[in-house]
Amino acid sequence: MSPAATKPSTMGDKYLLPLWFILAVRILHLSLVRSWFVPDEYWQSLEVAHNIVFGYGYLTWEWVEGIRSYLYVSLIAAQYYLLHILHLDYVQLLIFLPRLTQTLVSVLADVYLIRWICLMSSPPVAWLASLVSLSSACLAYCASRTLINTVEMNMTCVALYYYPWPHVNRKHDTKYLWIVGFCCILRPTSCILWTPLCLYDVFRSQSPLIRIFYHFVPVGVSCLLCCVIVDSWFHGGFLFTPWNFLRLNILSGVSGHYSTHPWHWYITAGIPSVLGILTVPFYVYGVNAMIRGKCHHAVLCVTLVWCLLVYSCIGHKEFRFLLSLYPIMLLYVSLQLYSWSHSISTGWMLTLVSCFILIETALLLFLSLFHQVGSLNVMSSLRDRHYTRADGDAGILFLMPCHSTPLYSHLHINIPTRILTCEPNLSPSTISPYQDEADVFYQDPVYWLYTQYGNMTLVEYDKSHSGDDKSHSEPGKSLSDSNHSIANPDKSHSILKNSQLTSDESHSVSDKSHSGSEKLNNSDKFLSTPLPHTVVCFDTLVSTIQGWLTENRFELQDKLFHTYFPLESRLGKYVMVYARVAG
What ranges does the record give for the region Disordered, renumbered to this chain (predicted)? Predict the structure, then answer.
């Protein structure tokens, strides 16, 4: 453990990598990452900001129900607004500027992360940590993405540095409390990480009550007040997002709609996904700590174990949820690697480090350039295709798992679009089993297309397909009971003011998600839906709907590589673009 330091901000700086080098590496990562990761990168940030500034777009149910804070989105919206008033709102800048900003924030977080590890251990360990951090494929893959999890990790790095550790002279410092407060507003599950650390701060102070009421309460109330003001203004009515997040995502178990994993998933799959081959030294350190009954900075060990236990009790799990724990895991990985460096020769250590860098670099290149790249490339294809069309009302139909691509933030054209929605069951009165629109579609794609865009009634369809072996969804039930949304927004340049309907104006998430959408209450209305100009789907679906495409004069216009290894059966190796031709 390092001795007390009165000037921790400069301690060991001469051992750390220079800022220009960290910046250069992260900019390189920014230029390399050209792939799709998760929907939240766009649908919980860029799409919302685009809707705020340009007055059209699609808002998912999370924003309709008010479980997400606008604090982070407002920063992206400010960038969009600046581009708008300067008449520089080219789609390339709308895509690039938020990612560049996020990269710069990640660079700042890198600096604080390494300084914190230097503070908690020694300069040589911090130097080793900086090498590991900049070589990490996971961090490189996520650092430039507009994910709230990346922002949460960035804020955690800074807050850990400013935390009043026992060996640092910061007894009454509240800087970290402000960062933690806003971090918990942006991502309420951050409370899980910071609860033991804040309790430790309180109980080790000489006057716990004074610490609570003089520091914690004012900061907490100020952050909550800021949250309520900003979120209510953008939402158009009173909104307290932390409670809505807890009520819907945690207490009601709505997040489980998007997949669940067994309790041990974070230990067996999540941590290895984040740390890669460094999982080995991390687990070795953990086993040694248990055997010795001693761990560097026990409060961090307790915090790490506590978080993993709580996270494991939540059904919906993703490895990006572990990003906020990365600083603590990196500290212990670096300590173990430093310990090994004294046990093996310099040559072997250099070999291990070189192998790690090569493996992580190869993984990053594959994930960034060859895995799930079609989701972004197809938006460029669609953008070019529809910018050159005279018919401004030409629509696009995405027959893909919900949110498989970005939307208006990468199109920046006010044309009708339709995606397969996947809202969870927000109504307790809904008869189970509940099915979202995407599930209904994939049960029988041809049936769905004929009932939405066909030229025959449901009865005629059933008669014409009575000999088929396929089992169809019950007519008039699953389709008509589902929420179907068509994004055909009216463009209104309402800058920095959300024109979204309030929650009491409609009971349908689809109705509230975007202006111009219409809930179709019975299957007869589906038959009058105009055919789109363009259909986008994965190649695995083509053989199933080829007859419908041919019948309606859709011809293949583009075939874009997506991935060598589709992660589920509904995905494919290629993204296909079909367009209607004149009859």
Answer: 462-524
